[in-house]
Amino acid sequence: MLSEWHQQLQRITHLSSNALAIYFGLIIFFVVAFCHQRQLKSNYAIWAVILLAVGVELFNARHDILDKGYWRIGQSLQHIINVLLLPLTLWFMARYRVWKG
After folding, report:
1. What's the pTM value of the predicted model, to 2 decimals?
2. Cβ pair 26, 20 in contact under 8 A
3. Largest CA distance in the chain
4. Residue 88: is it exposed, middle or buried by C-beta count within 10 angstroms (0-12/13-18/19+)?
């Protein structure tokens, strides 16, 4: 059911799986950062993205093991990096005050 929902979302948005992962990470980061007081410097926001990325990949690993008989570790690491790349970049930039003039 979840994979059908993912494929339907890809058809609607015309985005690749990697692009959806990147936007998914950004959306989670911005939602948690908005709710937290420190906003982009929020440790809660970056940890929410990390935990969600790892959790989703563990769920996908279970699916791979049951269907294919093995876990595609390389592909799982690529998805985790895709989800974390932009939120982690924004978090570091806010944390170390790159935008301060």
Report:
1. 0.82
2. no
3. 54
4. middle
